[in-house]
Protein backbone atom coordinates (compact mmCIF):
# COMPACT_ATOMS: atom_id res chain seq x y z
CA UNK A 1 0.00 0.00 0.00
CA UNK A 2 1.38 3.39 -1.00
CA UNK A 3 1.64 6.17 1.58
CA UNK A 4 -0.92 8.97 1.17
CA UNK A 5 -0.01 12.51 2.28
CA UNK A 6 -1.57 13.32 5.64
CA UNK A 7 -3.71 16.49 5.62
CA UNK A 8 -2.82 16.97 9.30
CA UNK A 9 0.90 17.09 8.50
CA UNK A 10 0.31 19.36 5.49
CA UNK A 11 -1.73 21.75 7.65
CA UNK A 12 1.08 21.94 10.21
CA UNK A 13 3.67 22.51 7.49
CA UNK A 14 1.52 25.28 6.01
CA UNK A 15 1.22 27.15 9.29
CA UNK A 16 4.93 26.80 9.97
CA UNK A 17 5.76 28.17 6.52
CA UNK A 18 3.36 31.09 6.96
CA UNK A 19 5.07 31.92 10.26
CA UNK A 20 8.48 31.74 8.58
CA UNK A 21 7.38 34.12 5.81
CA UNK A 22 5.92 36.56 8.34
CA UNK A 23 9.12 36.52 10.37
CA UNK A 24 11.06 37.24 7.19
CA UNK A 25 9.10 40.48 6.74
CA UNK A 26 9.82 41.56 10.31
CA UNK A 27 6.12 42.12 10.99
CA UNK A 28 4.17 41.07 14.04
CA UNK A 29 0.91 39.15 13.79
CA UNK A 30 -0.92 42.33 14.80
CA UNK A 31 0.84 44.27 12.02
CA UNK A 32 -0.32 41.76 9.41
CA UNK A 33 -3.89 41.64 10.72
CA UNK A 34 -4.12 45.42 10.71
CA UNK A 35 -2.77 45.74 7.15
CA UNK A 36 -5.28 43.15 5.91
CA UNK A 37 -8.20 44.48 7.92
CA UNK A 38 -8.55 41.25 9.90
CA UNK A 39 -9.16 40.69 13.60
CA UNK A 40 -5.86 40.89 15.47
CA UNK A 41 -6.05 37.26 16.63
CA UNK A 42 -6.70 35.76 13.19
CA UNK A 43 -3.02 35.40 12.23
CA UNK A 44 -2.14 33.95 15.61
CA UNK A 45 -4.92 31.39 15.32
CA UNK A 46 -3.68 30.39 11.86
CA UNK A 47 -0.10 29.98 13.04
CA UNK A 48 -1.03 28.02 16.16
CA UNK A 49 -3.37 25.72 14.26
CA UNK A 50 -6.44 26.85 16.20
CA UNK A 51 -8.25 27.70 12.97
CA UNK A 52 -7.84 26.61 9.35
CA UNK A 53 -6.41 28.78 6.61
CA UNK A 54 -9.19 29.30 4.08
CA UNK A 55 -8.48 29.48 0.31
CA UNK A 56 -9.53 33.15 0.20
CA UNK A 57 -7.06 34.02 3.00
CA UNK A 58 -3.89 32.67 1.41
CA UNK A 59 -3.39 35.04 -1.60
CA UNK A 60 -3.43 38.28 0.45
CA UNK A 61 -1.00 36.76 2.94
CA UNK A 62 1.38 35.71 0.17
CA UNK A 63 1.13 39.15 -1.42
CA UNK A 64 1.91 40.87 1.87
CA UNK A 65 4.81 38.49 2.56
CA UNK A 66 6.22 39.10 -0.95
CA UNK A 67 6.32 35.35 -1.57
CA UNK A 68 8.21 34.05 -4.60
CA UNK A 69 6.44 32.14 -7.35
CA UNK A 70 7.92 28.90 -6.04
CA UNK A 71 6.71 29.66 -2.52
CA UNK A 72 3.23 30.49 -3.83
CA UNK A 73 2.98 27.21 -5.70
CA UNK A 74 4.28 25.23 -2.73
CA UNK A 75 1.96 26.83 -0.17
CA UNK A 76 -1.06 26.66 -2.48
CA UNK A 77 -0.42 22.92 -2.87
CA UNK A 78 -0.07 22.55 0.91
CA UNK A 79 -3.37 24.35 1.42
CA UNK A 80 -5.10 22.06 -1.07
CA UNK A 81 -3.64 18.94 0.54
CA UNK A 82 -4.49 20.17 4.05
CA UNK A 83 -8.17 20.39 3.09
CA UNK A 84 -8.39 16.81 1.88
CA UNK A 85 -9.90 14.10 4.03
CA UNK A 86 -7.89 11.35 5.67
CA UNK A 87 -9.52 7.94 6.20
CA UNK A 88 -9.88 8.85 9.87
CA UNK A 89 -12.22 11.76 9.12
CA UNK A 90 -15.04 9.23 8.81
CA UNK A 91 -14.49 8.43 12.50
CA UNK A 92 -14.39 11.99 13.80
CA UNK A 93 -16.95 11.16 16.48
CA UNK A 94 -14.71 8.47 18.01
CA UNK A 95 -11.28 9.89 17.12
CA UNK A 96 -11.51 13.31 18.73
CA UNK A 97 -7.92 14.55 18.32
CA UNK A 98 -5.29 14.90 15.60
CA UNK A 99 -3.02 12.04 16.67
CA UNK A 100 -3.96 9.66 13.86
CA UNK A 101 -3.23 12.38 11.31
CA UNK A 102 0.23 12.89 12.79
CA UNK A 103 0.84 9.15 13.03
CA UNK A 104 -0.23 8.57 9.41
CA UNK A 105 2.92 10.02 7.85
CA UNK A 106 5.49 9.18 10.52
CA UNK A 107 8.60 7.31 9.40
CA UNK A 108 9.55 6.35 12.95
CA UNK A 109 7.33 5.79 16.00
CA UNK A 110 8.94 5.36 19.41
CA UNK A 111 6.53 4.68 22.26
CA UNK A 112 6.51 3.78 25.93
CA UNK A 113 3.34 2.15 27.22
CA UNK A 114 2.76 1.28 30.86
CA UNK A 115 -0.81 0.00 30.95
CA UNK A 116 -1.69 -1.89 27.79
CA UNK A 117 -0.35 -3.07 24.44
CA UNK A 118 0.05 -0.14 21.98
CA UNK A 119 -2.74 0.27 19.43
CA UNK A 120 -0.72 -0.61 16.34
CA UNK A 121 0.01 -4.06 17.76
CA UNK A 122 -3.39 -4.87 19.27
CA UNK A 123 -5.55 -7.78 18.08
CA UNK A 124 -9.21 -7.10 17.35
CA UNK A 125 -10.39 -9.02 20.42
CA UNK A 126 -7.99 -7.06 22.63
CA UNK A 127 -9.18 -3.76 21.13
CA UNK A 128 -12.80 -4.70 21.71
CA UNK A 129 -12.14 -5.63 25.33
CA UNK A 130 -10.42 -2.28 25.98
CA UNK A 131 -13.18 -0.30 24.29
CA UNK A 132 -15.89 -2.10 26.26
CA UNK A 133 -14.03 -1.57 29.54
CA UNK A 134 -13.53 2.13 28.91
CA UNK A 135 -16.98 2.81 27.42
CA UNK A 136 -19.31 0.76 29.55
CA UNK A 137 -22.35 2.82 28.48
CA UNK A 138 -21.58 2.70 24.72
CA UNK A 139 -24.06 0.90 22.50
CA UNK A 140 -23.00 -1.76 19.99
CA UNK A 141 -22.72 0.69 17.09
CA UNK A 142 -20.41 3.03 18.98
CA UNK A 143 -18.31 0.11 20.16
CA UNK A 144 -18.00 -1.25 16.62
CA UNK A 145 -16.99 2.19 15.29
CA UNK A 146 -14.34 2.63 17.96
CA UNK A 147 -12.95 -0.82 17.22
CA UNK A 148 -12.97 -0.16 13.46
CA UNK A 149 -11.19 3.18 13.96
CA UNK A 150 -8.44 1.61 16.05
CA UNK A 151 -7.97 -1.25 13.62
CA UNK A 152 -7.85 1.21 10.71
CA UNK A 153 -4.64 2.66 12.12
CA UNK A 154 -2.88 -0.66 11.53
CA UNK A 155 -2.91 -0.05 7.76
CA UNK A 156 0.31 1.88 8.46
CA UNK A 157 2.10 -1.42 8.83
CA UNK A 158 1.07 -2.45 5.30
CA UNK A 159 2.60 0.56 3.58
CA UNK A 160 5.22 -0.04 0.89
CA UNK A 161 7.69 1.49 3.36
CA UNK A 162 6.18 1.04 6.83
CA UNK A 163 7.31 3.20 9.74
CA UNK A 164 9.93 1.87 12.10
CA UNK A 165 8.31 0.97 15.42
CA UNK A 166 10.29 0.89 18.64
CA UNK A 167 8.09 -0.02 21.59
CA UNK A 168 9.09 -0.20 25.24
CA UNK A 169 6.36 -1.96 27.22
CA UNK A 170 6.15 -2.06 30.98
CA UNK A 171 5.75 -5.61 32.23
CA UNK A 172 2.31 -4.61 33.51
CA UNK A 173 1.15 -4.04 29.92
CA UNK A 174 1.61 -7.73 29.09
CA UNK A 175 0.69 -9.13 32.50
CA UNK A 176 -2.66 -7.38 32.81
CA UNK A 177 -5.34 -9.82 31.63
CA UNK A 178 -7.52 -7.93 29.14
CA UNK A 179 -10.54 -9.81 27.78
CA UNK A 180 -9.64 -13.11 29.43
CA UNK A 181 -6.87 -15.71 29.00
CA UNK A 182 -7.69 -16.61 25.37
CA UNK A 183 -7.64 -12.98 24.28
CA UNK A 184 -4.32 -12.45 26.06
CA UNK A 185 -2.85 -15.61 24.57
CA UNK A 186 -3.62 -14.33 21.07
CA UNK A 187 -2.36 -10.86 21.95
CA UNK A 188 0.95 -12.10 23.28
CA UNK A 189 1.30 -14.29 20.19
CA UNK A 190 0.81 -11.16 18.07
CA UNK A 191 3.60 -9.39 19.98
CA UNK A 192 5.93 -12.36 19.52
CA UNK A 193 5.15 -12.35 15.80
CA UNK A 194 5.86 -8.61 15.65
CA UNK A 195 9.26 -9.19 17.30
CA UNK A 196 10.29 -10.98 14.10
CA UNK A 197 9.42 -8.11 11.77
CA UNK A 198 12.39 -6.14 10.37
CA UNK A 199 10.79 -2.76 11.14
CA UNK A 200 9.64 -3.53 14.70
CA UNK A 201 11.62 -3.62 17.94
CA UNK A 202 9.92 -4.49 21.22
CA UNK A 203 11.55 -4.20 24.64
CA UNK A 204 9.98 -5.24 27.93
CA UNK A 205 10.69 -3.13 31.01
CA UNK A 206 10.45 -5.70 33.83
CA UNK A 207 9.15 -4.97 37.30
CA UNK A 208 12.63 -5.81 38.57
CA UNK A 209 14.01 -2.70 36.82
CA UNK A 210 12.45 -0.63 39.59
CA UNK A 211 11.82 3.10 39.28
CA UNK A 212 12.40 4.59 35.86
CA UNK A 213 12.32 7.87 33.90
CA UNK A 214 8.72 7.54 32.67
CA UNK A 215 6.88 6.88 35.92
CA UNK A 216 4.66 9.81 34.94
CA UNK A 217 2.99 7.85 32.18
CA UNK A 218 3.09 6.74 28.52
CA UNK A 219 4.23 8.85 25.59
CA UNK A 220 4.95 8.57 21.88
CA UNK A 221 7.61 10.23 19.70
CA UNK A 222 6.72 10.67 16.03
CA UNK A 223 9.54 11.38 13.57
CA UNK A 224 9.26 12.28 9.88
CA UNK A 225 11.37 11.91 6.75
CA UNK A 226 12.29 15.62 6.65
CA UNK A 227 12.90 16.89 10.20
CA UNK A 228 13.29 20.45 8.97
CA UNK A 229 9.90 20.65 7.28
CA UNK A 230 8.21 18.29 9.75
CA UNK A 231 9.84 18.32 13.19
CA UNK A 232 9.28 15.57 15.74
CA UNK A 233 6.03 15.52 17.71
CA UNK A 234 5.58 14.15 21.24
CA UNK A 235 2.12 12.81 22.04
CA UNK A 236 0.77 12.41 25.57
CA UNK A 237 -2.57 10.78 26.26
CA UNK A 238 -4.78 9.98 29.23
CA UNK A 239 -8.48 9.38 29.79
CA UNK A 240 -9.40 13.05 30.07
CA UNK A 241 -7.02 14.84 27.68
CA UNK A 242 -4.40 14.59 24.97
CA UNK A 243 -1.41 16.82 24.31
CA UNK A 244 0.90 17.30 21.33
CA UNK A 245 4.30 18.86 22.09
CA UNK A 246 6.46 20.36 19.35
CA UNK A 247 8.97 22.61 21.13
CA UNK A 248 12.54 21.37 20.86
CA UNK A 249 13.07 21.41 24.63
CA UNK A 250 10.09 19.12 25.18
CA UNK A 251 11.10 16.79 22.37
CA UNK A 252 14.67 16.59 23.72
CA UNK A 253 13.38 15.74 27.19
CA UNK A 254 11.22 12.87 25.98
CA UNK A 255 13.93 11.63 23.59
CA UNK A 256 16.32 11.39 26.55
CA UNK A 257 13.61 9.71 28.60
CA UNK A 258 13.11 7.09 25.89
CA UNK A 259 16.87 6.46 25.72
CA UNK A 260 16.89 5.80 29.47
CA UNK A 261 13.95 3.40 29.11
CA UNK A 262 15.70 1.45 26.35
CA UNK A 263 18.80 1.16 28.54
CA UNK A 264 16.79 -0.20 31.49
CA UNK A 265 14.57 -2.57 29.51
CA UNK A 266 15.43 -6.09 28.36
CA UNK A 267 17.04 -6.09 24.93
CA UNK A 268 14.81 -7.15 21.98
CA UNK A 269 15.98 -10.79 21.99
CA UNK A 270 15.53 -11.11 25.75
CA UNK A 271 12.14 -9.45 25.43
CA UNK A 272 10.99 -11.99 22.83
CA UNK A 273 11.99 -14.76 25.25
CA UNK A 274 10.17 -13.00 28.07
CA UNK A 275 7.00 -12.82 25.97
CA UNK A 276 7.29 -16.51 25.12
CA UNK A 277 7.40 -17.33 28.84
CA UNK A 278 4.36 -15.14 29.49
CA UNK A 279 2.51 -16.92 26.66
CA UNK A 280 3.18 -20.29 28.32
CA UNK A 281 1.33 -19.08 31.41
CA UNK A 282 -2.01 -18.88 29.56
Report on this model:
The chain is an alpha/beta fold. The chain has two domains: 7-82, lambda repressor-like DNA-binding domains (434 Repressor (Amino-terminal Domain)); 92-280, Endonuclease, Chain A, CATH 3.30.870. The chain is 48% helix and 12% strand. The chain has twelve helices and six strands. A six-stranded mixed sheet has the order 3-2-1-4-5-6, with helices on both faces. Helix 1 (7-25) runs antiparallel to helix 5 (69-82), helix 7 crosses helix 8 (140-152) and helix 10 packs antiparallel against helix 12. The longest helix has 19 residues, at 7-25. The model has no long low-confidence stretch (mean pLDDT 93). Residues 18-72 form the HTH cro/C1-type domain. It holds the Pfam family HTH_31. This is DNA-binding protein.
